[in-house]
Amino acid sequence: MELVNTLGRRKSAVARIYLSEGKGNITVNKRELKEYFPNTTLQYIVKQPLNLMEAQEKYDINVNLGGGGPKGQAEALRLAISRALLKVDPESRKELKAAGFLTRDPREVERKKPGQPKARKKFQFSKR
Question: Model pTM?
Fold first, then answer.
């Protein structure tokens, strides 16, 4: 199997991954997954597509992650891993799609408008 390269995005986070055959090592920005994401919930989010396809021990994944916060980065990485698994095994599309791992979440932060404290919040109105 050759090296599979895919991209995943969520909010302002971007995950570029390189998937190859191996023993199940996930390296994020030259650090171990457990070191980069100490929160077990985020580790679970990242490993969801691998657990679904029962491929935890089949592939080594090298990741370049940037932008956003921890949750957005974890979800961007989940999307990238799902896309890579789809490239490796096109028959897995049905299960990945049903679990919602192939859908890019389009929600982004709304910009702040001038004359307002936040995107939608307004300053208190005073009649007099």
Answer: 0.91
